Protein 1
Amino acid sequence: MTTVAAYAAPAAKAPLERTTIERREVGEHDILIDIKFAGICHSDIHQAREGWGEAIFPMVPGHEIAGVVSEVGSGVTRFRVGDRVGVGCMVDSCRECDNCRAGLEQYCLNGATMTYNGIGRDGLPTQGGYARTIVVDENYVVRIPEGLSLDEAAPLLCAGITTYSPLRHWNAGPGKKVAVVGLGGLGHLAVKIAHALGAEVTVLSQSLRKKDDGLKLGADHYYATADPATFENLRGSLDLIVSTVSAPLDLGAYLSLLKTDGALVNVGAPEEPVSLNLFSVIGGRKTLAGSSIGGIRETQEMLDFCAEHGIGAEIELIGAAEINEAYERVLNSDVRYRFVIDTATI
């Protein structure tokens, strides 16, 4: 085991603090990554504060990891020392179920091993990217193309793939009208990606406060959901809605915006249950769906796509001592659009 510096939540809802953690030695198929940057995802806050249920403490959050390979195991074939790499929300899966074999490791039928707040094959809790290094099996690591800077690439490992996957699955592209609910860490990347895919993109946000940003990012239209006229004017006009917000929505109102056979896909996960009148989906043969991250192949595809189209996250780079302040700012929607930790400051 190797001791490394990290920032951890010692208990639920407790401020994160500098500490040390143990990383396993590099095994035959492992790579050691010197973490350069780690994004702050709203999921980190949900889990560090047990908003999604009981969690494992002390907890080192962070599943938007960008860094450089510093050591490889004897059996590693995909990477070598010096490679620019990323790690997202999972670091292992069973590798044997139908989903794993299909490249859908994120939906592993036996449960994927999450990058943090999970239990690894060694029976020990996993710890995430708010740290100086991490050891990961090569099969759960992706290559970051040279066209992407590591700091702007880090949020792509969660926010990027979380929005890319449903956009691809539901065929966003030319001739499709796609709406993104919320212009935050996930939403701003959803707009960029949907635009690059060739879709006509609408942002649905509570207010018009970020309208100029949304249009610069690639949106064709921008509407305030606080205005009841929005739901009247857009009724029955959209093919796909991707909701990135983690607050409960009036699902019936948003479903009313869809064309026949349209889909409302949720990638934000509220802590509270939501309700639905089923007539909202019966009328118009509409789909209410959810989507997680992507598999390893799709995550690499997403990174290559983003490099090709010049898509990186809009970031605010912070030092590790600012993590707790950043959490509060995320909760107050006071970030444009993703905090990224410079891990050299840990």
Protein 2
Amino acid sequence: MRCLAVLTVRNEGAFLLEWLAHHRACGFTDFLVFSNDCQDGTDRMLDRLEEMGELTHVRNDGPYDQGGIQFTAYKTADQMDIVQQADWIATLDVDEFVNIHAGDHTVPALLAALPEADAITLTWRLFGCGGVAQYVDAPVTQVFTRAAPAVMYWPWRSAMFKTLYRNDGTYGKLGVHRPRSPDPARVGQARWFDGEGRELDDKFRTQRIFSNYGRSNYALVQLNHYPLGAMESYVLKADRGRAVHSDHMLGVDYWVERNFVQEEDRSIAALAPQMSERLAAYKADTQLGALHDASVAWRKTRFDALMLQEPFRALFGRLLMTPPTRAVPLNEARFLVRYATRAREAGEQGEG
């Protein structure tokens, strides 16, 4: 079985080796990675990893079509043999780690637990900053261990998912959160299951990008999402720009909607020995280890330069002043949802 992870990166070499080591440990067999306009040597790291037989690297330096950087990469990927030959596919970001609780914590164990599934939703569990201001060269999965509650009521994006899906022709194109271009003759038979093993309704086959919130979605699998990292890293993320909406400057609003630290979750440590062994092997390669160290040094240098600019210095100051995000209780979430529902219904009536 070939299980493919598709990744897009820019200036994220410091995190690349841990991400790759973890996903190899959890059973992904193939990796297709697109880099764009890197200054920290991420692209050269990927070249070396390709030489080592660890992945396939494609430079995605532009120009980009109307969909932007990430969709341009996926459009290229759709035509590639490595995609067409995969049995299962997931599109991921470097701050997302598949965390499987079934069996031996690998993709084959998850598929064995859900043998009838054609698609499995990997629901985000948001891991907050936890007050970590300074970036250090240590595994993200070990530095950040506090996350959102298992049951969330707001915001809806806390329940967004990525999709691990069977590449059998039911869907023709990659997407950010879910596969796209469903085959009308086949999609009606596709069976979608969530991270608790519950079969999902028809809307998930073609529309939904977030799980049903107000309940746990993690019993069999979750997607550990580390969108913030240390405060220093967030300043660099704001400088880098977003993969989908690259013209949107990241600010405190993005931070507040993701900085949850209510519960400790160290479940990903189940694969830490295997991940650490692979990570050490990557760093032991003379060329790759030097490139990793250079990427870490680049982050420190870039942060120093950004802090001489008022917008980034102000952002860092606001992060220092902002407490961890309060989880919205059910009664307050219902108040917000009522208005969201009314707005949606009014929009639908206007369209009619």
Protein 3
Amino acid sequence: MTEPPSGLSSPDVEVKSLQLDDRPESESADSGIGDGDELPVPQQILISNVTCDSFKISWNMESRGQDRITHYFVDLNKKEDKSSNKFKHMDVPTKLVAKAVPLPMTVRGHWFLSPRTEYTVAVQTATKQPDGEYAVSAWSEIVEFCTADYSTVQLKQLLLKAEAIAGRMLPFTVFYRNQQREYFQPNSQYYRSRDAQCCRMLPSVKDNSGSHGSPISGKLEGIFFSCNTEFNTGRPPQDSPYGPYRFQIQADLLFNQNTNAYFGDFYCMYTSYHYVIVVLAPSGSKGDIFCRGKLPALDRSNNCFLSCGEEEDGSLSFRHAQDVILEVLYTEPVDVSLGTVSQISGHQLMSLSTLNAKKDPSCKVCNISVGR
């Protein structure tokens, strides 16, 4: 727990790690710690003001023994399940000790709190004795809560990191999307992201690849496109991890003066190359409304990743960043008849697939202080 930012009234609380043994809910943290029978037990735990790496906590307790309380013990644990965050720092103690202060108090710390992660928390009151030992109350009830997504503050931190490595801009003319043959066949039963009758590609909910706290994962619907080109040819690469059939569409049909652009994520997957997600949403669309206030907006004609400029003759020109792999998430249906489908001559490089890919939590290039 550290000093809360301006606008939060919670007290400045010093937090230290405290090695406590696992215990049944009704027992104190350590039988060797002093008798705390006269200390009040926290009741009706309330969690509020939850962010991606902090929360406020308060509770009620009987007046008996309150004057003896010098510290609070906070037992914070990640709620384990099959989809739990595999990258939590397991060596960091989650048993915390804080000096007793007026409630609510803010628990803050990216070293033990991860975004979009479920936790359980319980509290004891304690008295520090002259010999340095503690007398403690029984544990409170256990309550559950989930940390929040990255806010625009954290996303802007990611944006600055991504801008630092984006490199020079290269021209391109088409967006493209690779899939298996069945994806483009009418009435195919293999893919649900097609409206076969109307020959449209339909948006689907973004998976959980990338940064753990990205607000678009599992929430924003869209269709992923690429626009990266080979440096020596200026054309899309012939290899793809997603299938040997490629849909190509002229860039101005998806990205024009009526399209808003947003920064969505920046990550890597234990490799030397990095990915940037740019969201393209037609102005006023469902996707555009979702992105407003959640994602940093990009200047359509002047940003480091994906730009749309207007030439003197009124035509549009497009550029993409050279040194990152762009994933462009378009939030609306796309009519297949607006483009072309052909088979590529390269290979399926499955190692490059980002489907549900996990971000490298140790990378200093694409991680920020609040975690993955």
Protein 4
Amino acid sequence: MKHIRFGVIGCGLMGREFASAAARWFHLSDLDFAPQIVAVCDANLAAANWFKQRVPTVRLVTNDYQELLMDKEIDAVYCAVPHHLHAQIYVDIIRAGKHLLGEKPFGIDLQANEAILAAIEQNPNVLVRCSSEFPFFPGAYRIGQWIREGRYGQIIDVEAGFWHSSDLDPGKMINWKRRVATNGEYGCMGDLGIHVVHLPLRFGWRPKNVRALLAKVVPERPDKQGQMVPCETWDNAVLGCEVQTPDQAFPMLLSMKRIAPGNANTWFIRINGTKLSAEFSTKHPKQVRSLPYTPGGAQAWRIEDVPYQSAYQTITGEIFEFGFSDAILQMWAAFCDELVNGKAMLQPFYCATPQEAAESHRLFTAALASRVSAATVAMA
């Protein structure tokens, strides 16, 4: 068993999810590699000490990420910090020669993202990937398999989205995602967007233009003192795009919503084609809807329960239901697999790349320009 020694920078919710995934590694079958969390860093030492108390392999707890990066026994880093810290910390991680799985959006804006890409180019032996777990749901993974098999025919149109509803409550306390200084001008696009564009970009569906509809639904929220303060960032975004590939053109609708009533954590993708149409949503995690079509034949959607089967085999029986923590475990397996085996990965779906994150930055930058001009903006 090859152990990949990880440091975690940012010990909040997603850092704890990684710790849980590492602790459940035996859930995966027939792998000869595993992550081992050996160091943690957070500005709030109480958050870092959560790991010290629960993860026996942790030997370094610090509030100085440079101390973690100087540790020669650390192979890789998972970094989950607010967007305004991405450029500096990600660049330092890469220059330190540590492999990186970082949270989206890989920089607060396009300039910050370009600084990260420059560091990657200067350090080609460092593996850098972006966290995006939803494509590892069995239904989403199957939709991707059908793309690789060329089963859709000519694409008619595509819709993808990621919707939350917790921010519908106007009394919810303001956080860093509501401030331009820490979240960036992208608002919900930076926070949710890579999840929405990950699969379309992986399939080669790059928008050639965008018309953006952006909305601020709740204008102010209480701070820690109970004072009402402005919400500076976008709550919801709907992006209408045209896709042009070498052999076809079609419309694509992308939506990112922090305020979508009734949706706790809904990610979905829908692909309509001349030979096959299909859709998957985490609202119904066991089901894939599909419509195979032959000319002159019937047009009937069918709903199929998908077995508990994703990129990597597990000890769980196929009749059981797959969940968010399972998707995170699968994503981590893909990252570790690529780190250990490179192009000889055990299965073909790898984590979101820095180049895909960069494409998302260009899209969201164009979307902001579209909002200002109230017009369709061509992608640079």
